[in-house]
Amino acid sequence: MLAPPCCWESGRYDHRHVIVRFTRAPHTAFTPHPHRIHTAFAQHPNAHCTHTHYTHTTLRSKMAKPQSILPPDFKEMVRNFEPIRLGDAKEFASNLTPDQQKHPCCACFKIYCTSVSKCCPKKCCSLSCNILCPCCLWYCIPWLCACKDTKNPGEFSCTDLKGNRYELVKVDAEYETWAFFSENIYLNPKGSDLKASLYCKK
After folding, report:
1. How far apart are the C-alpha atoms of 137 and 168, rounded to whole Å?
2. What is the count of structural domains for the chain?
3. Which domain holds residue 46?
4. Residue 135 buriedness (CB in 10 A; 0-12 / 13-18 / 19+)
5. Which of 40, 52, 187, 195 is the 20 to 30 Å CA partner of 112?
């Protein structure tokens, strides 16, 4: 294969550009690895090209995980039972270790209202006996069932036939605290901006 199209000059190849050759089997398509082209041009003393070359370092930086956007006082917000965002809760849970993301096999949790609740703010309003089954989690009173969210570790979620979605996300591994989110996906859903409505603390 010759140099990239940006190095062509009216159908003729400038002697300053290196020619990169690749071999392939007959009748098969072949796309050279970008790093090979970059290396060949970099080693040529007179090579110059405006084509963007992606080195392994560049590719790694593009695939790197984005920096955290969690509020700096996220833990304090959780421990004060403030209404955190669903997007922040998911990000926090995804950064926990696999062991921290797990839910106990069987445990009793206190259910707390958020700090902005009109009824019993930051107070325990009920109890929940959670039972983790092989395929789902039974929690709260009356019983609610949620499946493990494979795309979002540290979360259990479900959507009923009426479009009501329930999500239980782990937001504090030290004190075994889970935040409860609920909304109807057909009535102007807020998605990642949805605020927690309850907390479950062991």
Report:
1. 10
2. 2
3. 5-63
4. exposed
5. 187
Please state whether the predicted TM-score (pTM) of the whole model is above 0.90.
no
15-72 tens-digit pLDDT: 444 444 444 444 444 445 555 544 444 455 554 444 444 444 444 444 545 556 788 8
181 shares a domain with 126? yes
* 168 and 115 within one domain: yes
Q: Which amino acid is at 111?
A: I
Chain centre to alpha carbon of residue 70: 13
What are φ and ψ of residue 41, in 5° steps?
-70, -40
Residues 80 and 154 in one domain: yes
* Count of other CB atoms within 10 angstroms of residue 37: 20
| Average confidence (pLDDT) per 10 residues, the chain, 202 residues | 47 46 46 49 49 45 57 93 96 95 92 93 92 86 81 92 94 96 94 95 92
DSSP assigned state of 17? S
* Dihedrals phi, psi of 6, to nearest 5 degrees: -70, -10
What is the spatial distance between Cα 75 and Cα 92, in angstroms, rounded to a whole number? 10
Helices assigned H by DSSP within the chain: 34-43, 56-63, 74-79, 86-94, 98-101
Enumerate residues 6+ apart whose C-beta is below 8 A from 30: 1, 22, 24
| Model pLDDT, residue 71 | 85
